[in-house]
Amino acid sequence: MTKIVESSDNMDNLIESNSHFAFEKMRKNKDYFKSIENTQDPKVLWIGCSDSRTSPEILTNCDDPNSKSAIQYAVEHLKIYDIMVVGHTGCGAIKAALDYKHVEGDVATWIKPIYNTYKRYSKEINSLKTDEEKVNELSKLNVKRVVSVINHLDFFKESAKKGKHINVNGYLLDLHNGQLKNLHLNKTNFHDGL
Ligand SMILES: [Zn+2]
């Protein structure tokens, strides 16, 4: 049976950090939250991965209804013009895709699109020497796949027809040094069937 906890050290730390953040903001500017509470004006939609702290669904299965609606909301309502798709080195989801036959249940369904990408490029991925290189290469290919899928979403193409061009680009976050590497996918031919 799942144990339900009301709180844990991690949760308490988050609440404490939030409280500290809010207190510091108010101390410097007592109207800080008043000034931002009615503005929701982000410039960039960042699509990442849960083990590097952002939503995993989109980076694995970006054409499922939840992910699609999140992107559509960002594009049509928040007026986003830039979407950053960010994979990262040492990604757990990518490692699982490389070891797909040992993955079971919902995780297997979730990982399947990445596994399909691996199957397609298995020859070149398997020719790499280390596991680390294999994981990072598949991470890059998966980012490329997601960029391609986003560019093929119906509302996205509609938006382009109406003259609103949204820039979608892919990056790889190197967890060893915190650097974001631009994969220059905004110039990619997206019709390569990834
Ligand atoms: Zn990850």
From TrEMBL:
Binds 1 zinc ion per subunit. This is Carbonic anhydrase. It comes from the Eukaryota. The lineage of its organism: Eukaryota, Fungi, Fungi incertae sedis, Zoopagomycota, Kickxellomycotina. The keyword Protein biosynthesis does not apply. Its cofactor is Zn(2+). Signal peptide: none annotated. SUPFAM superfamilies: beta-carbonic anhydrase, cab. Keywords: Lyase, Metal-binding, Zinc. Pfam families: Pro_CA. One of its GO terms (biological process) is carbon utilization. It is an enzyme of class 4 (lyase). It catalyses: hydrogencarbonate + H(+) = CO2 + H2O. One of its GO terms (molecular function) is zinc ion binding. Its EC number is 4.2.1.1. Reversible hydration of carbon dioxide. It comes from Smittium simulii. Zn(2+) binds at C49, D51, H88, C91. Belongs to the beta-class carbonic anhydrase family.
